[in-house]
Amino acid sequence: MSARRSSIVLIALAVVLVAVAAVVRLVVAPYATRLPGDTDQRVEYAGTATVLDSEALRSGDTAHALKQGIPVTVDRRVRVTSTHGDTAVLEDVMTVHMGKQALPSAKTYAVDRRSREGTSPPESASVEPSRGALSSAFPPHAARDDSYTYYDATTRSTVPVHYTGSAQREGRTVNVYEIEVSAPVKDPAVLEPLPAALPKKLVAGMVPSLAPGTWDRLTPEALAALADPVPLTYQGRSTLVAHIDRQTGVAIDQDVHREIVATVSVGGEPTALLPVSVLTFGVTPGSSEELGDKAASAGLFMTVLTDVAPLVLAGVAALLLVIVFLRGRRGPSGSAPA
Fold first, then answer.
1. Is the distance from CB of 275 to CB of 257 less than 8 angstroms?
2. Which strand ranges, in their side-by-side order, compose the sheet holding 157-169?
3. Are 131 and 150 within 8 A, CB to CB?
4. Could you tell me the CA-to-CA distances from 46 to 70, 167, 228, 257 in Å, in that order?
5. pLDDT digits (tens, 9 = 90+) for 194-244
6. What's the pTM?
């Protein structure tokens, strides 16, 4: 009777271990891949900038109106400021350092902690309208297709994300995604310091130095038809190439090109006049190495939860069942049956 009871106990224990393995694999592991409430990630970039020299432009020195190749560094901090169930309020602050100037830009998003896509914010939060689109992070095990969209805060537009293949970064396999944006600038913080119009005489003086496609359209007749001062609008153009760790979603490397172009309306059609700012930068080697280490650590934790722990628990359960089976084969006296 004692052997029978111990077998029942072993079978019950095996069932419990299998149940625990299922809970770890199907419940605990997915929960652990949610965006953590204590997320606080810093990334450093380096590159160059082209900026408009407003003094040169006002003086009519259009040949020197653009300062090109200025070295810049960019600090980015992405952190969760609060969580509300499956929703996280995420603050994304990017500061461009150009000489002694520091130009910060802060955006706030409400994101789904599992998919990392924009979602409805809590009542207390004022966020960017990024619902359904990625903005600051990719999810773990991101899809290797064109199913994602991306929200661009400068133009407040949502554009497709294109999967272009895989690569290696810092010893990790990454998915490579490319994002292209071309839309009118709508961010008030970007538009505020930009001139709403330029004197017609100044625009006419710029024509010889403009690209052929522009000065072909700005004929003397077209210039004469423009208002004085000439109203300006601004176009945001960006290209982002992101190298996303396949397992964890960590952005190990990124290449960014952003420009804002002043445009005028000629014959009812927008015509590019000149760029007022161009930023080209990428993740620094040191920052990329740190991100690779972070991805490796997070990946190991995810592997333990999703694969190792469930397999170990299931293996122990199987071992217990084998013991029960062998006991049954020996018979109640402990000897093998005839």
1. no
2. 101-112, 87-98, 66-84, 40-52, 269-283, 251-266, 233-245, 172-184, 157-169, 149-152
3. no
4. 11, 22, 40, 12
5. 888 888 888 887 777 776 667 678 888 888 888 889 899 999 999 999 999
6. 0.86
